Every structure is written in C-alpha cells, then in structure tokens.
Amino acid sequence: MQPDDSPELRSLYKSFEDEHIIPLWTQLGDLMPMHPKPKAVPHVWKWKSILPLAEASGDLVPVGRGGERRALGLANPGLGGNAYISPTLWAAIQYLGPRETAPEHRHSQNAFRFVVEGEGVWTVVNGDPVRMSRGDLLLTPGWNFHGHHNDTDNPMAWIDGLDIPFSQHNDVGFFEFGSDRVTDYATPQYSQGERLWCHPGLRPLSQLQNTVSSPIGAYRWEYTNQALTQQLLLEDEGHPATIAPGHAAVRYVNPTTGGDVMSTIRCEFHRLREGARTQTRRDVGSTVFQVFEGSGAVVIDGKRQSLDIGDLFVIPSWVSWSLEAETQFDLFRFSDAPIMERLNFARSYVEGKE
C-alpha cells in the first residue's frame, strides 16, 4: 500500500508533520504486528553479582526523605534505560542496614516484597507491624501507608515488585509522605491481619465485605512449603495434585474473593522435582521469577541459562520459555496476568498441546 514517491507526496507528509499527524500506512507493522514483538528482552540478574552492589549502596547511600528507599531497580536492557523489568512491572533489591528505618509513605502503585534470605525487618502497613522472614510474601496494596525498620545488628535485603510502569504509562499515580519514622515499632511474631485471616477455610464474620486486594499482610513460607510438599506426596500416591509430572505450584490468593492478591499483580510459587522439566510455552504478558532454593536452568527463546539461589529473570510477552531442575528447584513467580485477563488480552501456547 506504500505510495510512489513524488513532490506532492513529500509535501503531504510535511503537512502531516506540521499538524502532528502520523498516517497508519507508515507504521502498521509496528502498531499491529502479527504477534507480540516486545521491546523488553529476556534477561537474567545473578544474585551473587547484584547483592554486593546493594551492600555497597548500604555503606554509601542513606535511607530517608528524598530517596525514601535504598532500592536498586532492575532495568530491562531493551527498555531504553528505564528502571523497568518489563513494560508493566518493576522489580528491585531493597537493602536496609542494621537498626535503620525507612520512613512511611503511600502510593497508588501496588507493591509486594519477597524474602529470599535473612530476617529481622518488620514492615509496618497502615499501623500493623508485619514480620519479614525467609520465604515470606509480604503485601503492600496501593494507597496503604508503609515503612520498614530493622530491629537487628545485621542488614537485610529482599526483592520488591510493583506495577510502577503500568501506572506511569497510564498516568494513575499518586504519592503521599507519612511519618518520618514508622507508626509502630512493635515486633510481633504475627501481624493483626494474619491473626484475623490466616485460619484455613475460615472467614471472620466481621469482615464479610470483599476487598480489591488481600487483607493478609504476610503469606508465610511454612505454609507455602507444606502445600508444595503435600502436592508432590499426593502425586507419589497416584492422586492428581500437581500441574504437571514433578511440578507442584500454588497461587497466593485474596481470601475475600479467591482471586489474585492484588488487582495488577499475580504471585505464585513453583517447585520442580530433581530432573523435572516443564513444557515450553508462550504467554501474553510479562513474568518474573526468582530462584528461592536449588539449582536448574531456564530456556528462554531457545537459549539455556543456568540458575542458582537468588537469581532473577524476566520473560517478556510471547517469548518461549521452559524450566529444568537439576536439584529440587523452588521458584517464586510474579506476573501482570490479572491485567491481561481482565482486559481480555490473555493468551497462551504450550508446545505439545492442541
């Protein structure tokens, strides 16, 4: 459909430019490709390389008003220098030194924290102190005041996940400062939210109204581990409990709806038996994994990369991927699947399935 070059055509294009007009026929392949062609690229961040950078930042960069958080955003090499791990998701390593406090604030963006190692920090969410420990998923849904304090003589690092890119692209973000400290320095074993909500199959009658995000502040590793262990034991006994042979998985859910923990982010945990492999698949949307325990590999777009504890990797939209376990292989996963499903863009292709 491209027209022949002529003085008249060049004049027309100059008039388009003057009036801030771009004709569709010059950009159809970019705007409406035959399948997703993400600018984001697959990438692996090695924990052994990035954790020392967080530690060095702890020695040089203070925590407090202005920067607010000592967080190292993982910048996808394909996204032009933005601190985005994908077009919809943000991931960072946050580092809090001994006896430090990160002041309270709140923002429209939804956030979570996942702890791959360490303990001793409490995050205070709307006045409720929540213990952070290895293997725990901690939630800070949008517009909840939150700050962190380290109650020990040792530093601690964890990963943050947020929907910052999605919020920024759509101009929906608000931000507000809170206390310069935290509103409660208590260090309870269990938060108020856990004490009220974390009883299997039971819902408090005082809380019958559904909520957009989960009211649970912490999903504890002991329960995640038990659930995955029992799935594999049931598989051993011949019962249908895993999503594929040797592949146990759970999704963290909002107990008021049974849906995702937050409206824009899905969180899951996966365990593969030693020697297990997943089928190769493609999904619309962005996915990020962090290795929690064990060793294995990910094959992204045909390229195999070995993985160890703490390593993070991103799978952009419609890029093929599969996992391979060398030992028992535990991985935390988060994605933008709630956005894709709600907008009816979700699509997957699994090799070997019709």
Helix content: 10-25%
Poorly predicted sequence stretches spanning 5 or more consecutive residues: none
Distance between the termini: 36 Å
User: Beta-strand level of the residues, as a percent range?
Assistant: 25-35%
The major pleated sheet works out as: 6 strands, antiparallel
Strand order in the sheet with the most strands: 1-19-16-21-14-13
Q: Could you walk me through the main structural features you see in this protein, from its secondary elements to its overall organization?
A:
By secondary structure, the chain is an alpha+beta fold. It is built from 7 helices and 22 strands. The strands form 5 sheets. A 6-stranded antiparallel beta sheet has the order 1-19-16-21-14-13. A 6-stranded antiparallel beta sheet has the order 2-3-10-5-8-12. The chain is globular and about 75 Å long. The relative contact order is 0.14. The mean pLDDT is 96.
Quick overview:
With 354 residues, the chain is of the alpha+beta class. It contains 7 helices and 22 strands. A hairpin with a 2-residue loop joins strand 6 (121-125) and strand 7 (128-132).
What is the topology?
Layout: H1 7-18, H2 28-31, E1 43-45, H3 47-60, E2 71-73, E3 90-96, E4 101-107, E5 111-114, E6 121-125, E7 128-132, E8 137-140, E9 146-150, E10 156-162, H4 164-169, E11 175-177, H5 192-197, E12 218-219, H6 221-236, E13 247-251, E14 266-272, E15 281-283, E16 287-293, E17 296-300, E18 303-307, E19 312-315, E20 321-325, E21 329-335, H7 337-342, E22 348-350
Antiparallel strand pairs: 1-19, 2-3, 3-10, 4-9, 4-11, 5-8, 5-10, 6-7, 6-9, 8-12, 13-14, 14-21, 15-22, 16-19, 16-21, 17-18, 17-20
